[in-house]
Design a protein that fits this description.
- The chain is α/β, with parallel strands linked by helices.
- The chain contains 29 helices and 21 strands.
- The protein has an eight-stranded mixed beta sheet, with helices on both faces. Strands 1, 2, 3, 4, 5, 6 and 7 form a seven-stranded antiparallel beta sheet that branches. It has a six-stranded antiparallel beta sheet with strand order 10-15-14-13-12-11.
- The chain is elongated, with a radius of gyration of 34 Å.
Length: 829
Amino acid sequence: MHNICRPYTQEEVFYLDTNSENNLDTRGVPIIGLTSEEVRERIDNGQTNHTDISTQKTVGQIVKSNLLTYFNLIFLILTVLLCIVGSFRNLTFLPVIIGNTVIGIFQELRAKKTLDKMSMLNAPHSIVVRDGEQQQIQSEELVKDDIIILSAGNQICADATVLSGSISVNEALLTGESDEIKKKSGDRLMSGSFVVSGQCYAKLDKVGNESYISQLTAQAKAMGDGEQSEMIRYINKLVKWVGIIIIPVGIILFCQAYIMNGETFKKSVVSMVAAVLGMIPEGLYLLTTVALALSTIRLAKKQVLLHDMKSIETLARVDVLCVDKTGTITEPGMQVTELVISGRCGDAEMDKRAFAHLLADYSAVIEDNNATMEAIRAYVAKNEIEKGSRTLLKTQPFTSANKYSKVSFVEGDYMLGAPEFIMKDRYEEISEEIEEYQSKGYRVLLMAESGEDSIGSVRPLGGISPIGYIVLSNPIRENAESTFTYFKEQGVAIKVISGDNPATVSEVAKRAGIDGAENYVDASTLASEKDITEAVDKYTVFGRVTPKQKQLIVRALQKQKHTVAMTGDGVNDILAMKDADCSIAMASGSEAAAQAAQTVLLDSDFGRMPYVVFEGRQVVNNIQRSASLFLVKNIFSLLMAIFSAIFAITYPLEPSQISLISMFTIGLPGFLLALEPNRNRIEGNFMVNVMLKALPAGLTDVLSVGALVICGQVFNLPSEDIATAGTMLLAVVGFMIIIKISHPFNKMKYGVLLINIIGLLFCGLFLGRLFAIESISNICFLLMVVFAFAAESMFRYLTLFVEKLSSFFGDEKNRRKIRRKIRKYNIFK
């Protein structure tokens, strides 16, 4: 028996044929592929298609990234210093740090488990020939020398050689060029490219880490380090700068307390640790990680798979959504509604019955496996239309560049595809017949007889002769109208980008309730990038769009400062999806599109999109709100450290007191508020929004506690009394900002506030020694009450001042005035 596990000779390659029914070559010899024993041998030798390159963290990497951090090193040093001086009471921050680390590891592992399970269900599959039988297995389970069957929509999973058949491939992921390349027997196939049309057998030459797919899959599944979302980027910057500042500030405070103020070594260390501890946003990064992980898990339960967690924020910020017609606005499946004989048909014997038989012959021999051809084959099968007796010469598969396919029989040459592309400058002859159906939202294909025979010579009939039309329809999705209405209400513009006739797409978009759907353009008339840039402002619907034009439309929108999301389900969408700020794929589409996308709708239901946007808004808005609580502590501690250095005083608080305040006015309320449903639109810059909320409270803390410390020195109050009063004062201001950021209140927010007040009072009354809360003198209590009332007014007026300042500088007219004055000043100078 002939075994295909060894390399084929050129003669053998010539005889192979893509007969999927019995796997025979043209000499009747079976194609059996590798045997089970040969597969096991290659697996033992590590010659599988499994790759070590992954965009997801391993368990070890998750533990390491949460445990071995810069701030955990700082906490370890602080712990050692406190142990050296015997101040064990001030180690109260340790349970919080350990808890933060454990929770972070647990949530990331939980999210990983969920995503791994879903990724396995949604993993790329391949059809392989083994032991003479076709099997569908995961692409990672393929081995070297396996023989696979490739057809339209498949991503080539490893480097291979075509053994038989022919396909058109797009190597855009490798070369950046969207041109389709014809591959026939003996040609090389590069992993990472994808099949546009045709079918073939291919033998795998390089698998796993040896193939290009190792790098390309990583690029397709995740954003690079330079493509972080706005929120993550600013949080990383904050953490970085705090990490730089705390070392010199800590050294200055220790030297000042120990050398200049003559404090004991223990007191100097304790005060320095308190200041440094207050400047570290230890919970902010954890809050972000946990919120994103929980959001990923919630989306997974809704059949939404995220290849990249950061895409949650991008989706929430999207203001332009580019969608395809088929599979997004309409159901993915197509159906033939009617066959119509053209009024221009020159064949007197051609009627619907003869047309149907011609269509049966055509669909039986053409290699295309796209949705259109599948619908035609289903129509032929359903109506039991028998094939004729035409003799095949050769075929030319459909390409997105030509937008038609061609079959040459001995009896004649026939073309099937987009009427405009087949008829070209003679399209006006049949336009009226087609527009009747396009105006109702149908898709119309033209079957025509070509004026050229198989070797290119002109037949006597000359030119193109229309025969008839195949009228196809896609049912509008049930939830399409409500989905697009939602996006309209949210101020998200919709751009429909399709390869179909623009009039047809426009009609479908109208029925789906897309605003501005009557404004459409034929993209074949857009000759340059400048034309496309002008068109994106004027038109909602783009028809006859090539894959490269889809990419240019996305880029044009991005140049206009839009955040663009691109949805797609086919290989022709990949170029645009790769360039979009966020890409969404339908799982019912091609594997290549699903692998390239950041977000995959596993049930292919576009109606999930509002929920995905809701989830993104909840995460970003709640993290933004909670981040302001963390930043209050950081602002206070930094400014208080500077205040202490300037006025040559010892930092007034102890680490245990900072831990108490952090627990009940920052950490716990921050995490609880981050779980609240929040569907408000995301507006403005993340860091600006956080600073505007945090700055008034941070300044209030510094001014009130600073004044309390000065008054305490004037009245010669004990430092323990001042520290306790300062802690209570910080608690009062902390609850002020919680109340401020919680508006409007509901039962959940009242509950959060009450829980934290009770928790703080309980720790102060029953665990006072642990948190350094001492009994204070009457005069110190009176000062604390006076400054608490003053803090309320101070916080209110500082908030109004910051808001007005923000409003003034946020107004474009005012910014222009300021810029003009600056330029005028520079000229004067």
